Automatic annotation (TrEMBL):
Pfam assignment, any one: LysM
LysM domain segment(s): 11-59
Protein name: Peptidoglycan-binding protein
Family matches, as Gene3D superfamilies: LysM domain
Top-rank lineage group of the source organism: Bacteria
InterPro entries in UniProt: Bact_Kbp, LysM, LysM_dom_sf
UniProt-listed PANTHER family: PHAGE-LIKE ELEMENT PBSX PROTEIN XKDP (PTHR34700:SF4), POTASSIUM BINDING PROTEIN KBP (PTHR34700)
Length: 335
């Protein structure tokens, strides 16, 4: 697919700390999700999603008259180390700029998951603090129901239910409150756990689950949606009005989208009363919105989103561009 270069795209740009791949892509392209196309003839770039602070990008025209990016990367003989967000010592030079603003999506990538209501209710409960206090935090010992299956556990709390456009409950949003370590005991009826790394206070009724219930972050690689169509179900703060950099829930799950899928956000046009379908544009956009009441005017694109975490029937996405207010029920489709 041919890419359209923005007229104000810089000929030379040095990547800096704080950049995101989406921002850099939008600097060069009118359709940022086509970022890999700028590198299609550059055999020296094996993964266009791995761009590092200090890299110099040069926009050139190749012998076929096509625009492409050439990368120049600084090297250093002295390895530089830093602490990762998880507390591991990693090579500083091996930390690429993120595809999306990490500070916005990190709480949802690391500490949030969507389960079915049945899955959540089947998890063992926190019963009481060992010292019989009301709320518990780091270093406290709590008593849990039997059914603990791992030495390392998470404390979880249901935050809200997720409903599809027909008001069917399709999942519950779960927040990771703390980590907990199982304390060996001879008691067969209850479990003892010591809380550590508490992010919020634990309460009676919170649930306990093995750390494996929180999926590992997946690589985010930009790609355009194709034939997928769905809806925005809301944002994670339960606001009625949404916009740029809001984290939202959509009604497409793992079978339909993957982290990095870019989708357009569209508003419905009004139904055309008393008109013939032969008089309506046959492009794919009106077909999304045609209803039993009659054809609707072409949809208006109001923004773009990128999926960053997927579950069985829903996914989390980040709105990266919005020219109008986004609401529950807005359509998402190929950008």
């Amino acid at each position: 697919m041919a890419v359209v270069i923005r007229p104000d795209a810089p000929e030379v740009y040095r990547v800096k700390k704080g950049d995101t791949l989406w921002d850099i892509s939008a600097m060069y392209l009118t359709q940022p999700w086509l970022w890999p196309e700028l590198w299609r003839t550059n055999s020296h770039i094996t993964n266009p999603h791995l761009i590092f602070p200090g890299d110099e990008l040069r926009l050139v025209i190749n012998e076929d008259g096509e625009a492409e990016l050439v990368l120049s990367r600084e090297t250093t003989d002295k390895p530089q180390k830093k602490l990762s967000p998880e507390g591991r010592l990693v090579n500083k030079s091996n930390t690429p700029v993120p595809v999306l603003p990490w500070s916005v999506i990190a709480p949802f990538v690391k500490n949030a998951v969507v389960l079915t209501e049945e899955e959540f209710n089947a998890l063992p409960k926190v019963l009481i603090d060992y010292d019989d206090t009301v709320r518990y935090a780091t270093e406290d010992v709590v008593v849990g129901e039997k059914g603990i299956v791992s030495d390392e556990m998470l404390v979880l709390r249901q935050e809200r239910s997720i409903y599809d456009m027909q008001d069917n409950k399709i999942g519950v949003q779960i927040r990771n409150l703390a980590s907990a370590t199982l304390i060996p005991t001879q008691n067969q009826q209850y479990s003892l756990l010591k809380l550590d790394k508490s992010r919020m206070e634990t309460r009676t009724g919170d649930r306990l689950a093995p750390v494996s219930i929180m999926p590992e972050p997946e690589d985010i690689q930009l790609r355009s949606a194709e034939n997928q169509r769905g809806h925005i179900l809301g944002n994670l703060q339960e606001h009625d009005l949404m916009g740029r950099l809001d984290v939202i829930v959509i009604d497409l799950g793992q079978q339909h989208v993957a982290p990095g899928t870019v989708m357009g956000i569209y508003k419905r046009g009004p139904v055309v009363q008393g008109d013939s379908r032969d008089n309506v544009d046959k492009s794919w956009l009106p077909e999304i919105f045609d209803s039993e009441e009659g054809p609707q005017l072409p949809a208006i694109k109001t923004g773009e989103l990128v999926v960053f975490k997927t579950f069985a029937r829903t996914s989390y996405a980040l709105i990266l561009d919005s020219s109008d207010i986004v609401r529950r029920g807005d359509i998402i489709a190929r950008p």
